[in-house]
Specification:
4 strands; alpha+beta; 104 residues; 29% strand; globular; four-stranded antiparallel beta sheet
Length: 104
C-alpha cells in the first residue's frame, strides 16, 4: 500500500520532517493508528518523490508509543546539518496525549 493510501486503512497522518535540501530530500514520517505510532524514513533526489518505492505496512521501520517515536526521530536526525527541520514533529510528539488523535 502506498504512503498516501494509508489513511484509508486507518493510519492517520501525524507528521513528517525533511532534512534534505536543494534537489534532495530526506524524510521521516509518522502515522498513528489506534493509539500506536508507526514510522518510516526515505531519501532520494528530485527524480522521484518520498515513499515512491516503499510498500506499507511492511516498510514501516518501527512502531510504539510517542516516546519510541521520539527516540527513532532523534536517531534519524542526529548528525544532520539540518536536524532543526525535525523540531516541529518532535514538539508535536512531545505534546501528544492519548485519545486526542493525530491532530490533538
Amino acid at each position: 500500500m502506498r504512503w498516501s493510501a494509508l489513511e484509508s486503512a486507518g493510519f492517520e497522518s501525524f507528521g513528517e520532517a525533511d532534512t534534505g535540501g536543494g534537489y534532495d530530500w530526506n524524510v521521516f514520517g509518522v502515522r498513528l493508528k489506534d493509539g500506536v505510532f508507526y514510522w518510516s524514513s526515505d531519501s532520494g533526489c528530485s527524480c522521484n518523490g518520498p515513499w515512491d518505492f516503499l510498500d506499507f505496512p511492511q516498510d514501516f521501520e518501527g512502531y510504539g508509543n510517542a516516546h519510541d517515536a521520539i527516540k527513532a526521530l532523534n536517531a534519524w536526525s542526529s548528525g544532520s546539518y539540518r536536524a532543526s527541520n525535525s523540531e516541529t514533529l518532535l514538539q508535536k510528539l512531545l505534546d501528544y496525549r492519548p485519545g486526542k488523535g493525530a491532530n490533538g
